[in-house]
């Protein structure tokens, strides 16, 4: 449960140490700036940057009912962050499964990727697509798709 928060916590702690060093050297403005950069980077790499995750079985059930894609992701993944940012508000229409929180999701990703936990893996109509182009994923959300 705490695994997705390790990277963000390390970033905040590291930024605090660097900021404290700058503060003791007499650079309060630089210390605040550095701390803000580290906190922002921690926020982007935290689970908070993504829509609420659900379990794979629930995502699969919902996807079969309404046809929306399922995205497998994990915190700290730059490719997942790229997909999330490029999808913008459309990302809320997808079902997001954090493979670090859902063992069934991690198993589904390994099955789709020859034993590797390669993310993002997007499942559309039951077919997995590894690290797809965000524009293609957005097209899968259109009513005509």
From TrEMBL:
Pfam families with a match to the protein in the record: Glutaredoxin (PF00462)
Keywords: Membrane, Transmembrane, Transmembrane helix
InterPro entries cross-referenced by the UniProt entry: Glutaredoxin, Grx-like_ET, Thioredoxin-like_sf
Entry's transmembrane regions: 29-50
Domain of life: Bacteria
Domain Glutaredoxin: 70-127
Region of interest (Disordered), ranges: 126-145
Designated name of the protein: Glutaredoxin domain-containing protein
């Amino acid at each position: 449960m705490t695994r997705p928060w390790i990277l963000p916590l390390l970033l905040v702690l590291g930024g605090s140490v660097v900021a404290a060093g700058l503060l003791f050297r007499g650079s309060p403005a630089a210390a605040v700036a550095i701390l803000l950069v580290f906190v922002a980077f921690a926020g982007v790499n935290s689970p908070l940057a993504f829509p609420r995750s659900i379990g794979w079985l629930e995502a699969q059930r919902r996807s079969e009912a309404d046809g929306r894609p399922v995205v497998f992701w994990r915190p700290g993944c730059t490719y997942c962050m790229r997909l999330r940012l490029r999808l913008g508000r459309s990302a809320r229409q997808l079902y997001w499964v954090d493979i670090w929180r859902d063992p069934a999701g991690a198993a589904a990703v390994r099955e789709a990727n020859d034993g590797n936990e390669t993310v993002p893996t997007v499942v559309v109509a039951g077919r997995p697509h590894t690290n797809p182009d965000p524009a293609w994923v957005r097209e899968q959300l259109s009513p005509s798709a």
